[in-house]
DNA sequence: GATGAATGAGGATTCATTCAT
DNA sequence: AATGAATGAATCCTCATTCAT
């Protein structure tokens, strides 16, 4: 059945491998994933992986690169999709939750797996994640309409906002997957509602600097 | 080298092991950590780990348990330490960031490592995290003054708030560590400020349900 | 030393492993045998054993299976080889002693090692031994001419006979190996003679039920 | 609960250990038995075993010695118990099955475990087993009344008979334990009956040498 | 006499990686 | 281009054995 595979061009084979690898890496984690399993899922033999990607680390790095591209592209599309410049916070949140929920595997590989592994990936991953964070920062800024609105936020603040968004989203997507009755939309509602409640209370005793 | 044993009572040795394990686990991740390395850092021999903690998994579980205890206790103390009953959200945030920043390793082990590992830890970790989340939920509720204040939040909403808090904190601690000029206090300021700004903007176009 | 591989097809290597394993298992016993030693004797590296047979237990099981096959086949051949349909008990005994004497290692692995090991092998071994016992039972029944002859023996009795045969053979093979002046034939003579003597004596005082 | 045991005289402690060891050795086999487990069953601590018996091997050897004594004594008692010198074959078989069934653990340790282990025990065990075999030979001879009856059997034949008896008994006791509805007596009946049937058939075509 | 503490040595198992075909 | 065959190097875990108290 699987002996003597059809001779496919390199590009195609490589994508098959990366597809399989992302699937397995996101499910089992970097160390628990064996090259053998990836090869099996990809329907090829182990040596192919080494011929094309060089090593297990190279395979993971390839996943990082490709998924960073996909994420950045997805975020850009989300921004462009809603042409009207006055999106509002809700619109931004919804887009973000929906996006992460729909690109769960990419997200897991880039943000959970990559982070918990030690040194070998620090460089590669840091760069890839920076690109994604930048894009998300842009989206958040655009989504909240902040610079144009009331107070002006600094670059630092925008960064913080992006971190909050990714961190909260990461945690909330887990919750979302455990509560099938909720949707990205309803979750966005809840989050905003909570924020309003909390902040209303807070404004009473909080000495705004 | 260290072949002359120190003959310490079990309790002490156990804590040494767990100390070492948290250090190594948080640095290298669960899978990349070898029991041997933990033993070396703890200044004992491998079999001791197995005699006292049973297995690598048992060792990790012991870390989870102990750090969950420490974390819960620290949060409780932080809340109680400030006599004035009206803490406000700022107080809560500050306590939380402060603790996580000062206990980075515990946090990594509890929240990052534990999450990315597969099944074996689901049970143990879920229980430990539930305890922490409960405590944080309580803190958040107390901090916002809910449900005595404005709107009443449901259990589901409290859960979401706790997730946001932990998720955002996780992401922000990274940022905090990269910006030594900031403190838990100043970060708390920024976060609240941003929330105010965002929400003010949002209230304009957001149809509160 | 043997680092340059011979690149043999799987079937061949598998038989080499099993050959080596039977040798070592029968010499040292299951627990004292290390997979490493088996690999060395087979002239391959440890991982090959795991790739092909899965585990030490799988290796042992493979031995059991193969030797059970060989034994059953040998007994069948021995019976069929002698054309005259009236083989008699002597013929059967001779074939049996001859085979066990010539296949001492197989016998040890199948009957001694397997029995003294605990649970892991109960299933596999029980099945393999049942096949052998069945065959021996058939042989015994054919050899004694039952049930066409005098009394009819029940299934239970046939089982008992087979047990006696294997148990006695086991013990007698030890004796045979210690007495090089004896042959399977002469031993068979002695056994039958003893049986005659004993039973003649017994019929005097034994009240046949 | 178990710290600081009552100071017992050496003799008593030693017997406790050997009792426990026989239990565990016969259940789990030599290699699977850990000194720790024996100590636990004996209700003492591991170092005691080493102080008293020197090593795991010494522990096993002590078991061999003591059980060989017990077995020899039991066989002697069985012989003496039936004073009337004309016991008959059935009487002998019954005594033997009953005896092995009642001394199962000793039997297992001496005959099954000891045999399947490699070199270390060859000497010790061979001597112990020889004593038991001699005694059984005597019992068998007495039980069958052979020397006084029809044909005279040689020393060699007596040895063979003893081997058959022990081998068959070993195999049949397994069967007996699996069939609680049978007793040593009923099994003896079956065996004799089978022997009669078989030999009757055999005498027809068997050329007695 | 008795034990808790401690370890050196060894065995099963897995896995990334490389050849020979 | 593609793969079956093969292995070196870890890693987890266990156990007999010793020492300090």
From TrEMBL, chains A, B, C, D:
<keyword id="KW-0238">DNA-binding</keyword>
<dbReference type="Pfam" id="PF00440">
    <property type="entry name" value="TetR_N"/>
</dbReference>
<dbReference type="InterPro" id="IPR009057">
    <property type="entry name" value="Homeodomain-like_sf"/>
</dbReference>
<feature type="domain" description="HTH tetR-type">
    <location>
        <begin position="11"/>
        <end position="71"/>
    </location>
</feature>
<keyword id="KW-0804">Transcription</keyword>
<feature type="DNA-binding region" description="H-T-H motif">
    <location>
        <begin position="34"/>
        <end position="53"/>
    </location>
</feature>
<keyword id="KW-0805">Transcription regulation</keyword>
<protein>
    <submittedName>
        <fullName>TetR/AcrR family transcriptional regulator</fullName>
    </submittedName>
</protein>
<dbReference type="InterPro" id="IPR050109">
    <property type="entry name" value="HTH-type_TetR-like_transc_reg"/>
</dbReference>
<dbReference type="Pfam" id="PF21943">
    <property type="entry name" value="TetR_C_46"/>
</dbReference>
<dbReference type="InterPro" id="IPR036271">
    <property type="entry name" value="Tet_transcr_reg_TetR-rel_C_sf"/>
</dbReference>
<dbReference type="InterPro" id="IPR001647">
    <property type="entry name" value="HTH_TetR"/>
</dbReference>
<dbReference type="InterPro" id="IPR054129">
    <property type="entry name" value="DesT_TetR_C"/>
</dbReference>
